[in-house]
Amino acid sequence: MVAKTQALIHTFVKTFENKAPEFKDDRYDFNRREFIGGLGQPLDRRAFQRGQVKEWDERRERVRQQVVAAYSLSPLYQAKAAKDPEFWNKFDCMGRV
Fold first, then answer.
1. Would you say residue 16 has pLDDT above 60?
2. CB-neighbour burial class of residue 67 (10 A; exposed 0-12, middle 13-18, buried 19+)
């Protein structure tokens, strides 16, 4: 089980490095409880809101819209939407990671 988890983490990290090379040398310092850039400087939250992260959010929204279109055909979800006019705007079937 541990080996599978380690392999999964390794695969995730390598994929992330390939998709977002600007973060390749960054790391998380558990003692300081902050992300550290490749040159040793602390990174603020804004550093994670550029490039690939923005693209992932846009891709996630496109998928959410596709799921909304599919679910909107269901009588169950149509009934929920009839009770709440904002239902489809708030609809999030994927959660946040």
1. yes
2. middle
CA distance 88 to 46: 29
The answer to pTM > 0.85 is: no
Q: What is the pLDDT of residues 69-97, one digit of tens each?
A: 888 888 988 898 899 888 888 777 655 44
Alpha-helical (H) ranges within 38-86 are 52-71, 75-83
**Which residue has tokens 């959660």?**
95
| 8-state DSSP, 23 | G
Pairing type for strands 27-29 and 34-36 reads antiparallel
In the numeric block, which tokens belong to residue 55? 């693209």
What's residue 96's pLDDT?
45
Exposure class string for 32-48: b at 16+ Cβ within 10 A, else e: eeebeeeeeeebeeebe
Q: Which residues contact 32 (CB under 8 A, 6 or more apart)?
A: 42
Single-letter code of the amino acid located at 27: R
